[in-house]
């Protein structure tokens, strides 16, 4: 006997006739019970991704530019020139 598959998001039992190779809405949501739960999973992934992505702070920018304060100043000067035009 095969154990019933359950939705990884809400633990709802997924009907045995739902298959990843199918074409119905339920099939497309596989392995989740519904489109909604699939979106919840996507959202969790994207939030996790944002959590490990460092925001672009001046310090971070400095690091990216190889700790060269002049490069940062030039970059900021260029930006303010464009704004003032
Ligand atoms: Zn679900």
TrEMBL record:
InterPro entries per the UniProt record, alphabetical: DNA_gyrase_inhibitor_YacG, Znf_NHR/GATA
Ranges annotated as spanning the membrane: none
Residues where Zn(2+) binds: 7, 10, 33, 37
Highest taxon listed in the record's lineage: Bacteria
Cofactor list: Zn(2+)
SUPFAM superfamilies for the chain: Glucocorticoid receptor-like (DNA-binding domain)
Keyword DNA-binding: no
Cofactor: how and how many bound: Binds 1 zinc ion.
Keywords: Metal-binding, Zinc
Metal-binding found in the keyword field: yes
Function, in words: Inhibits all the catalytic activities of DNA gyrase by preventing its interaction with DNA. Acts by binding directly to the C-terminal domain of GyrB, which probably disrupts DNA binding by the gyrase.
HAMAP family per record: DNA_gyrase_inhibitor_YacG
Family: Belongs to the DNA gyrase inhibitor YacG family.
Assembly, per entry: Interacts with GyrB.
Protein name per Swiss-Prot or TrEMBL: DNA gyrase inhibitor YacG
Native source organism of the sequence: Alienimonas chondri
């Amino acid at each position: 006997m095969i154990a019933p598959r359950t939705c990884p998001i809400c633990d709802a039992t997924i009907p045995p006739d739902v298959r990843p190779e199918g074409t119905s809405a339920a099939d497309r949501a596989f392995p989740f019970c519904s489109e909604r739960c699939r979106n919840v999973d996507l959202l969790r992934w994207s939030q996790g991704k944002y959590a490990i992505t460092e925001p672009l702070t001046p310090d971070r920018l400095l690091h990216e530019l190889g700790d060269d304060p002049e490069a940062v100043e030039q970059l900021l000067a260029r930006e303010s020139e464009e704004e003032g035009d």
